[in-house]
Amino acid sequence: MLCLIKLVIGLLCLNLTRALSQKHEIEHALVLYDPELIPLNETAPSLPPDVAKFINFLSSKFETAYADYNDEEVSLFYQGSLRFDHLVLFPSSKKAIKNKSNLNQRQLLKFSNEGGNIFVVGGSNNALVDGIRSFLNEVGIHPAPKNYHYIDHFNSKDGIVELTEEENLVEGNRILTSLQTSEFSGGSAALVSNSELIQPIVKCSKTGYTNRVDEVISGETTWTFGEQGFLAVALQALNNARLVWIGSTDLLADDSLYKWAFQESGVIKLQFVQYVKASEPYIPEPQLWKIKDQAIYTIGVSEYVNGEWVPYKVKQDDEQLQLSFKMLDPYQRLNLKPLGPVSSTENGTTLDTYAYFANFTIPDHHGMFTFELDYKRKGLSYILDKKVVTVRHLANDEFKRSWDITNSWLYIASTVFVIVAWYFFVMTYIYVGKSNTAKKNV
């Protein structure tokens, strides 16, 4: 009976653990809006098609909460931890809001540093909340102020700017490979800093500019001119937290923008890391090495595609995975060679990761070394893995004997020759060079 009770309690604990883990896997999103611009507080709100599609995406993927900018009870944190995984910031009709204490520059930076993702929607006729604008400026994105409109007289129809892939899509970006948005109305542009973390997505055309509404172009009224401005910008922090700013709700037609922002695309993961000695492959991840050991380093990398992990295969030379074996500076820096699709779990049957390896000789220098994999490519989540090991010098009984060193053969041969020559000299001196004194005395 006691065993049965223990079994039941164990099953209950197991089910509770699974329930908690499943609950933890559910991601939460917060949408902040202005009821005067986007009436999400209504039972059946009348929304533009692109905005409605975006809201439906959020509802289907996450447990979504909606709140007014002036709702002072809304907080991004609970007891120091994130309450939400994703944050959506729609335009506002006013710069100042009542909930300043919970939605300011400091809170947004903390939200990003803790791994939260942020999606910001702008517009020319609307304002950005002061805290949001300060946050964007600090990370290097400078949207145009309210009433600054993006204009392109050469690529417009009926006063609406027309976008094309050839003219406006930033070449080589992974986030948005094709442009679905054809019209850009009521939007503005932004200037960006030269930070390596910023990734421009949609740029202004050569003939476009951002100017204050109903005013002539001048140094005081023009925000961007030509291709120096951008209509959509992304940023990925070193902790893989993501931020996307778009200049108009029209760009919501490209769902790749918010899918990337919410970690639904462009996500890669390091499934496993293994390194062994070629002489002792049965000992995984040894901590003590000696100089000139042969090392075999193997990893598995997966990419998140359509809700499942698939093997991530490097297709271009500039995307090569590299291993650095370093102390202060790299002593070895090698491109990892592909092995092929494998399973990320032992004895697994699903080929969900791609294996890469490198085979190299430990350098002739002892000390503390690091197996470092630092993979940063725009549009992909960053991978950083470090394993510290000790490299020792050879022990006294591990050095090669003299006959094992080819350069010493000449000296060994010379020594043997001298010994043999001395032997013959002595023999000659004793038996050949000595005269017969007995015959001389006869």
TrEMBL record:
Residues 285-432 form the OST48 middle domain. Its main location: endoplasmic reticulum. It holds the Pfam family OST48_MD. Residues 1-19 form the signal peptide. The keyword Endoplasmic reticulum applies. Keywords: Endoplasmic reticulum, Membrane, Signal, Transmembrane, Transmembrane helix. Residues 52-257 form the OST48 N-terminal domain. It is a single-pass type I membrane protein. The keyword Cell cycle does not apply. The chain crosses the membrane at residues 409-432. Pathway: Protein modification; protein glycosylation. It is found in: Endoplasmic reticulum membrane; Membrane. It comes from the Eukaryota. Component of the oligosaccharyltransferase (OST) complex. PANTHER family: DOLICHYL-DIPHOSPHOOLIGOSACCHARIDE--PROTEIN GLYCOSYLTRANSFERASE 48 KDA SUBUNIT (PTHR10830:SF0). Subunit of the oligosaccharyl transferase (OST) complex that catalyzes the initial transfer of a defined glycan (Glc(3)Man(9)GlcNAc(2) in eukaryotes) from the lipid carrier dolichol-pyrophosphate to an asparagine residue within an Asn-X-Ser/Thr consensus motif in nascent polypeptide chains, the first step in protein N-glycosylation. N-glycosylation occurs cotranslationally and the complex associates with the Sec61 complex at the channel-forming translocon complex that mediates protein translocation across the endoplasmic reticulum (ER). Belongs to the DDOST 48 kDa subunit family. This is Dolichyl-diphosphooligosaccharide--protein glycosyltransferase subunit WBP1.
